[in-house]
Design brief:
mainly beta, 5-stranded mixed beta sheet, 4-stranded antiparallel beta sheet, 0% helix, 59% strand, globular, disordered N terminus
Length: 137
Protein backbone atom coordinates (compact mmCIF):
# COMPACT_ATOMS: atom_id res chain seq x y z
CA UNK A 1 0.00 0.00 0.00
CA UNK A 2 1.45 3.33 -1.05
CA UNK A 3 1.57 6.07 1.61
CA UNK A 4 0.92 9.68 0.73
CA UNK A 5 2.79 12.53 2.41
CA UNK A 6 1.55 15.84 1.16
CA UNK A 7 2.41 19.40 2.11
CA UNK A 8 0.62 22.41 0.75
CA UNK A 9 1.01 26.00 1.67
CA UNK A 10 -2.11 27.97 0.97
CA UNK A 11 -4.19 30.71 2.34
CA UNK A 12 -7.90 30.87 2.82
CA UNK A 13 -9.51 34.20 1.98
CA UNK A 14 -6.19 35.52 0.69
CA UNK A 15 -4.54 35.44 -2.71
CA UNK A 16 -1.02 34.14 -3.33
CA UNK A 17 0.93 36.90 -5.02
CA UNK A 18 3.95 34.89 -6.20
CA UNK A 19 5.50 31.48 -6.01
CA UNK A 20 9.00 30.18 -6.61
CA UNK A 21 10.22 26.66 -5.99
CA UNK A 22 13.83 25.52 -5.70
CA UNK A 23 14.74 21.84 -5.46
CA UNK A 24 17.70 19.67 -4.55
CA UNK A 25 17.98 16.00 -3.62
CA UNK A 26 15.20 15.38 -1.10
CA UNK A 27 14.71 19.07 -0.27
CA UNK A 28 12.31 21.52 -1.87
CA UNK A 29 11.79 25.16 -0.95
CA UNK A 30 8.68 27.08 -1.98
CA UNK A 31 8.22 30.82 -1.55
CA UNK A 32 4.76 32.35 -1.45
CA UNK A 33 3.38 35.81 -0.77
CA UNK A 34 -0.05 36.35 0.74
CA UNK A 35 -2.16 39.15 2.13
CA UNK A 36 -3.67 38.74 5.61
CA UNK A 37 -5.85 41.05 7.69
CA UNK A 38 -4.51 42.48 10.92
CA UNK A 39 -5.64 40.44 13.93
CA UNK A 40 -7.47 37.85 11.78
CA UNK A 41 -6.56 34.13 12.01
CA UNK A 42 -5.56 33.00 8.50
CA UNK A 43 -4.96 29.45 7.25
CA UNK A 44 -1.44 29.29 5.78
CA UNK A 45 -0.49 25.59 5.67
CA UNK A 46 -1.89 22.11 5.91
CA UNK A 47 -0.32 18.66 5.87
CA UNK A 48 -1.68 15.12 6.03
CA UNK A 49 -0.51 11.52 5.79
CA UNK A 50 -3.11 9.16 4.31
CA UNK A 51 -3.14 5.83 2.49
CA UNK A 52 -4.61 5.04 -0.94
CA UNK A 53 -8.02 4.49 0.67
CA UNK A 54 -8.07 8.02 2.15
CA UNK A 55 -7.48 6.74 5.68
CA UNK A 56 -5.44 8.71 8.20
CA UNK A 57 -2.03 7.13 8.90
CA UNK A 58 -0.52 9.62 11.34
CA UNK A 59 0.06 13.31 11.95
CA UNK A 60 3.08 14.41 9.92
CA UNK A 61 5.57 16.84 11.36
CA UNK A 62 5.17 20.54 10.71
CA UNK A 63 8.15 22.36 12.16
CA UNK A 64 8.38 26.11 12.52
CA UNK A 65 11.82 27.18 11.29
CA UNK A 66 11.20 30.92 11.65
CA UNK A 67 8.43 32.45 13.77
CA UNK A 68 6.72 35.60 12.49
CA UNK A 69 7.97 38.82 14.13
CA UNK A 70 4.64 40.68 14.06
CA UNK A 71 2.17 37.95 14.92
CA UNK A 72 1.97 34.30 15.84
CA UNK A 73 1.87 30.97 14.08
CA UNK A 74 -0.36 28.31 15.58
CA UNK A 75 0.03 24.63 14.59
CA UNK A 76 -3.02 22.44 15.36
CA UNK A 77 -4.37 18.95 14.58
CA UNK A 78 -7.78 19.10 12.91
CA UNK A 79 -9.85 17.49 10.15
CA UNK A 80 -9.25 18.88 6.66
CA UNK A 81 -10.00 18.21 3.01
CA UNK A 82 -6.73 17.20 1.25
CA UNK A 83 -5.81 18.71 -2.11
CA UNK A 84 -4.41 15.94 -4.33
CA UNK A 85 -3.60 15.13 -7.95
CA UNK A 86 -4.03 11.98 -10.04
CA UNK A 87 -5.56 8.81 -8.59
CA UNK A 88 -5.38 10.21 -5.06
CA UNK A 89 -7.72 13.09 -6.00
CA UNK A 90 -10.63 10.85 -4.97
CA UNK A 91 -9.66 11.76 -1.39
CA UNK A 92 -10.38 15.49 -1.90
CA UNK A 93 -13.98 15.03 -0.77
CA UNK A 94 -13.05 13.01 2.32
CA UNK A 95 -12.18 14.84 5.53
CA UNK A 96 -8.99 13.42 7.03
CA UNK A 97 -7.03 14.24 10.18
CA UNK A 98 -4.11 16.53 9.50
CA UNK A 99 -1.87 19.30 10.76
CA UNK A 100 -2.84 22.90 10.03
CA UNK A 101 -0.95 26.17 10.42
CA UNK A 102 -2.71 29.46 11.16
CA UNK A 103 -1.06 32.88 11.09
CA UNK A 104 -2.50 35.79 13.10
CA UNK A 105 -0.93 39.25 12.83
CA UNK A 106 -0.81 41.31 15.99
CA UNK A 107 -3.98 43.44 16.32
CA UNK A 108 -3.43 46.86 14.78
CA UNK A 109 -0.23 45.84 12.98
CA UNK A 110 0.04 46.56 9.26
CA UNK A 111 3.13 45.96 7.15
CA UNK A 112 5.29 42.96 6.26
CA UNK A 113 5.88 39.73 8.12
CA UNK A 114 7.54 36.42 7.29
CA UNK A 115 7.48 32.85 8.54
CA UNK A 116 9.11 29.58 7.53
CA UNK A 117 7.59 26.10 7.97
CA UNK A 118 9.28 22.76 7.20
CA UNK A 119 7.40 19.52 6.62
CA UNK A 120 7.73 16.14 4.86
CA UNK A 121 6.27 15.43 1.45
CA UNK A 122 6.37 12.03 -0.21
CA UNK A 123 8.67 9.41 1.29
CA UNK A 124 11.77 10.86 2.96
CA UNK A 125 11.62 14.28 1.30
CA UNK A 126 11.34 17.67 2.98
CA UNK A 127 9.63 20.86 1.83
CA UNK A 128 10.30 24.24 3.33
CA UNK A 129 7.67 26.91 2.85
CA UNK A 130 8.82 30.52 3.05
CA UNK A 131 5.79 32.73 3.45
CA UNK A 132 5.97 36.50 3.02
CA UNK A 133 2.89 38.15 4.49
CA UNK A 134 1.52 41.59 3.68
CA UNK A 135 -0.66 42.55 6.65
CA UNK A 136 -3.47 45.02 5.94
CA UNK A 137 -6.24 46.54 8.08
Amino acid sequence: MKNLFIFIILSAATIPLSSCTTTSDGFRQQSLSITARSGVRTLVAKNWHIDDECRHIDYPAMDVVEQPKHGRLEIVHEPLFPKLDGKASKCETTKVNGVVGYYTANPGYTGSDRLVIRSPYEEGKIEEGVLSVKVVE
